[in-house]
Amino acid sequence: MTVNPGLSLRHTGLVRILGLVLLLAIPSIGCSAGDSRYGEEVRNNFLVACQYEGDASSCGRALSCIEENLSQDEYEYEESLMLLTGGPSDRMADVMARCISDLD
Fold first, then answer.
1. What is the mean pLDDT of residues 94-98?
2. What are phi and psi of 18, to 5 degrees?
3. What is the pTM of this model?
4. Cα–Cα distance between 36 and 30 in angstroms, integer?
């Protein structure tokens, strides 16, 4: 598999941005009703934090993709883990990479 170095660097930056967005959204996390859409406060905080580095359309699509891949409970767990370890888990990095590739 051939990797385009420019593409890899761009995706690395986007993964860092999504990681930062996850960290900024932590205070808003609440209980999940179990459906695939996150609570309004979680969604709003994600979108506001994401739009510091990206456009509204890309941030909305990234959030929708994350919602499709992680329940709100799983998202909360991954955020907590990221705070504790200083970086995303392998699972979260995979989800973020998948969601970023969907934006291209």
1. 90
2. -65, -35
3. 0.63
4. 14
Contact 72, 42 (CB under 8 A): yes
- Tokens linked to 32: 């999940």
Q: Please report the pLDDT score of residue 49 as a whole number.
A: 84
User: 86-97 as b/e, with b when 16 or more CB fall inside 10 Å?
Assistant: eebeeebbebbb
Domain boundaries, the chain: 5-25+35-103
- What pLDDT does residue 96 have? 87
Q: Which two tokens stand for residue 19?
A: 């990681």
Is 57 a residue whose pLDDT tops 60? yes
Backbone torsion region of residue 34, taken as left when φ is above 0, otherwise alpha when ψ lies between -120 and 50, otherwise beta: left
Please check whether residue 99 is in contact with residue 62, taking contact to mean a CB–CB distance below 8 angstroms: yes
